[in-house]
Design goal:
- The chain has nine helices and nine strands.
- By secondary structure, the chain is α/β, with parallel strands linked by helices.
- The strands form two sheets. Strands 3-2-1-4-5-6 form a six-stranded mixed beta sheet. A three-stranded antiparallel beta sheet has the order 7-8-9, with helices on both faces.
- Helix 3 (82-95) links the parallel strand 4 and strand 5 (100-102).
């Protein structure tokens, strides 16, 4: 069994963040571990408060995991402060995990800022050069590169710029496009497009966290980048199709569709 570590924030409603990551790791038959960078007061309607975890506590969590357990892949999500990012990068340079997937979480689905403005530069400088794969949506890609993206044609130059910043590969997610939802995977040599399927539902809470965690798990299991993206997009699409009507806002995706189906309890 592969061991996966998520370094991210906690979502009290269970649909995104650490909770979504751990569910996704389990759904992929891997063992999930966590380092909590922030605690959010959050539900399906939005984020109301965030408290960042002290850097020394973040460092101690990372060291506790790596000093005892082999880590096959790391997924990095919400890291809101420059000093937290620097602490994580320092630890990852020390332990050198083979696979690092960076999901540059900047704004919650409800519009709450999850990355301090001054932290974006630190994220670019410290984490992108360590990344096996970066998974920005279009607003995040724009914030990282300073380049506007409003069409599929503009996604390739943005991907190239992100690679210039140090990442080994990038998956630019096109869900914010008006005329398509296609994603672009680019590793500096091969450009591969993945057709996106729009599903009529408001219950998409945690999809970015879920996709990046699925990618980390599939890469740890030995899939190639393209194979991992194909498998992970299929997993997330199914999770959205069977999303859960929980709360009065944007409900979560269903991380265990396959398990529920096999158990004969899928509603």
């Amino acid at each position: 069994m592969k061991n996966l570590l998520t370094i991210a924030g906690s979502d009290s409603s269970g649909g995104a963040g650490i909770q979504a990551d751990l569910k996704t790791f389990s759904a992929h038959g891997t063992f999930g571990m966590s380092v909590i960078t922030a605690v959010t007061a959050q539900n399906t309607c939005g984020v109301t408060m965030v408290q960042d975890i002290d850097c020394q506590v973040v460092k101690a969590q990372i060291e506790a995991v790596f000093d005892d357990i082999h880590v096959d892949a790391v997924k990095i999500g919400m890291v809101s402060r420059p000093e937290i990012i620097e602490t994580i990068a320092e630890c990852l340079r020390k332990y050198k995990p083979e696979i690092i997937v960076v999901d540059p979480v900047m704004i919650s689905k409800s519009g709450y800022p999850l990355l301090a403005p001054e932290a974006c530069t630190t994220l670019i400088k410290e984490l992108l050069p360590l990344a096996t794969l970066v998974t920005p949506n279009l607003p995040e890609a724009e914030a990282i590169t300073g380049m506007k993206v409003t069409s599929k044609e503009e996604m390739r130059p943005v991907a190239e710029k992100i690679l210039e910043l140090g990442a080994k590969a990038v998956l630019v997610k096109g869900g914010h496009l008006d005329d398509s939802a296609d994603d672009l995977l680019f590793d500096g040599k091969v450009e591969k497009w993945f057709q996106g399927e729009r599903i009529e539902t408001k219950n998409t809470h945690g999809t970015g966290c879920t996709l990046s965690s699925s990618l980390a798990a599939n890469l740890a299991k030995g899939l190639s980048l393209a194979e991992a993206v194909t498998a992970s997009k299929a997993y997330v699409t199914e999770a959205i199709k069977y999303s859960l009507e929980i709360g009065s806002g944007c409900g979560p995706t269903h991380h265990f569709v396959d398990l529920y189906r096999k158990a004969g309890i899928l509603e």
